[in-house]
Design goal:
heterodimer; A: 110 residues; mainly beta; 5-stranded mixed β-sheet; 4-stranded antiparallel β-sheet; 9 strands; B: 114 residues; 0% helix
Chain lengths: 110, 114
């Protein structure tokens, strides 16, 4: 799997957009970018994934740079319940396992 | 919305005892996984299972571990002789065959080995 680099922690004010960056400079053409989060010790929760184009769903938006070497997960209006560890994972489509790194601990503050 | 469920939520056992962790994957999913997370550490892949056989396993998944799909709904992880270092959260995940590759995770079972 391509290696990803994420900041260990970030703060965000409640109601503001949270922008979580991820570098994946060694990504190859068939590798997707996935984002999961883990709230406390719960099971990882799927957020969004993409290959080249920007993606949006009811939870978040994923912005992938044109060269695909980095991406940003955007939570448009962060709430206290969005406090979690966010994992950026890069892997080929249909590849078996996910490799979870250390992620970014997002602290949403009132 | 369909969910992966796991039982029990917390299992306490004595070192050397056998434990079975149970998972009910999402009903139309065909790939099944076990991951574990030792307290304060990363989520680690253990094993994947498809078509009634193991498709991939990690170095952690040694002879003390086994998986089984005993019926059409359950997926189990057995640890034959537990060690103190097996204490962790164990997460089951499942996904469809083909289509989106997204794995959906259960809430986890906390295993405490005394």
């Amino acid at each position: 799997d391509a290696k990803t680099t994420q900041p260990p922690s970030m703060d965000c004010a409640e109601g503001r957009a949270a922008n979580l960056p991820c570098n994946h400079s060694t990504i190859s053409g068939n590798e997707y970018v996935y984002w999961y989060r883990q709230i406390h010790s719960q099971g990882p929760q799927y957020i969004i994934h993409g290959l080249k184009n920007n993606e949006t769903n009811e939870m978040a938006s994923l912005i992938i740079t044109e060269d695909r070497k980095s991406s940003t997960l955007i939570l448009p209006h962060a709430t206290l319940r969005d406090t979690a560890v966010y994992y950026c994972i890069v892997r080929p489509y249909n590849f078996n396992k996910f490799y979870f790194g250390s992620g970014t601990k997002l602290n949403v503050k009132p | 919305e369909p969910e992966v469920t796991q039982t029990p939520s917390h299992q306490v056992t004595q070192m050397g005892q056998e434990v079975i962790l149970r998972c009910v994957p999402i009903s139309n999913h065909l790939y099944f996984y076990w991951y574990r997370q030792i307290l304060g550490q990363k989520v680690e892949f253990l094993v994947s299972f498809y078509n009634n056989e193991i498709s991939e396993k990690s170095e952690i998944f040694d002879d003390q571990f086994s998986v089984e799909r005993p019926d059409g709904s359950n997926f189990t992880l057995k640890i034959r002789s537990t060690k103190l270092e097996d204490s962790a959260m164990y997460f089951c995940a499942s996904r469809l065959a083909g289509g989106t590759d997204t794995q959906y995770f259960g809430p986890g079972t906390r295993l405490t080995v005394l």
